[in-house]
Design a protein that fits this description.
The protein has one domain: Metallo-beta-lactamase, Chain A. The chain contains seven helices and 14 strands. It is globular and about 55 Å long. It is an alpha/beta fold and about 290 residues long. The strands form three sheets. The protein has a six-stranded mixed sheet, with helices on one face. Strands 9-10-11-12-13-14 form a six-stranded mixed sheet. It has a two-stranded antiparallel sheet with strand order 4-5. The mean pLDDT is about 95. The longest helix has 12 residues. Strand 11 and strand 12 form a beta hairpin.
């Protein structure tokens, strides 16, 4: 029988992001998935309130962090990965196609000459199908592009952490209009998730309360997604999905924190280096996104 991981979810109401601590009950080894660095856009101030909740839980449970995992370069919140790494250790990991994202957004934000576009800011770049362990738990990194070129699903024992690729069945799927996104590619990526055993638990990175639902939710199953996802269920054709997704994406506004988030997250959660006056700056491209 597959060992079930311990899974503790932390919901950030400011960005509607769910972060997870995934642990092996036998060895007490753990991974953190999709952490949040709090950011007040009006003042430009950061805080570690959300990350500190994870740290308190990990210390209270006497867990040892092996991995700090990113499902993709997020466009809706800043990652707290470097802060967590400093406090807890663990290797920061993301999909190896992060280099595609770094090339596109490194150019968009006119990144400093020293900004590496080879993914070297991260501790490990996962290849599609690469296996790893969290204690005695078997895990696999599954490349699921479409929302972004670098999206990964982490399949850990009987659970999978799907990032933004899927939402709860009553909310649908990720948008595909960011640079490097593609609706047909996302359709094929979702088929990889639907090929997992029906009982596999799926954990979302976000929830925004679907119309008619008055509570937040972030756990479902492969079977439920295949049966009920309003955008892409087992009966949905690729052509129908691409048409729906393209038309819907044309009506969506950009995420509130996309410009600061991408600049930080393409650097593995590190802020840009200080200017000569000692202050760190984020850039605001005009009429470019």
């Amino acid at each position: 029988m597959t060992q079930k991981p311990g899974i503790k979810a932390f919901f950030d109401t400011d960005t509607f992001t769910v972060s997870y601590v995934v642990s092996d009950p036998e060895t007490r080894r753990a991974a953190i998935v999709d952490s949040v660095l709090d950011f007040d856009q009006a003042s430009g101030r950061t805080s570690t309130r959300s990350a500190d909740q994870l740290i308190r839980f990990i210390k209270d449970e006497d867990l040892t962090v092996d991995w700090i995992l990113e499902t993709h370069v997020h466009a809706d919140h800043l990652s707290a990965a470097p802060y967590l790494h400093k406090q807890l250790g663990g290797k920061i990991g993301i999909g190896d196609h992060v280099t595609d994202v770094q090339k596109v957004f490194g150019d968009l934000f006119d990144a400093e000459p020293g900004f590496a576009r080879d993914g070297s800011q991260f501790g490990h770049l996962f290849k599609d199908g690469e296996t790893f362990r969290i204690g005695n738990l078997e895990a696999e990194a599954i490349w699921t592009p479409g929302h972004t070129p670098a999206c990964m699903v982490y399949h850990i024992a009987d659970a999978a952490f799907v990032g933004d690729t899927l939402f709860m069945p009553d909310f649908g799927t990720a948008r595909c209009d960011f640079p490097g996104g593609d609706a047909a590619t996302l359709y094929q990526s979702v088929q990889k998730i639907y090929a997992l055993p029906d009982e596999t638990r799926l954990f979302m990175c976000h929830d925004y309360k679907a119309p008619g639902r008055d509570y937040f939710a972030w756990e479902t199953t492969v079977a439920e997604e295949k049966a009920k996802n309003i955008h892409l269920n087992a009966e949905t054709t690729q052509d129908a999905f691409v048409k729906m997704r393209t038309e819907r994406d044309a009506t969506l506004s950009m995420p509130r924190l996309i410009l600061p988030s991408v600049q930080v997250n393409m650097r593995a959660g590190n802020l840009p280096e200080p200017a000569e006056n000692g202050v760190r700056y984020l850039k605001l491209p005009i009429d470019a996104v």
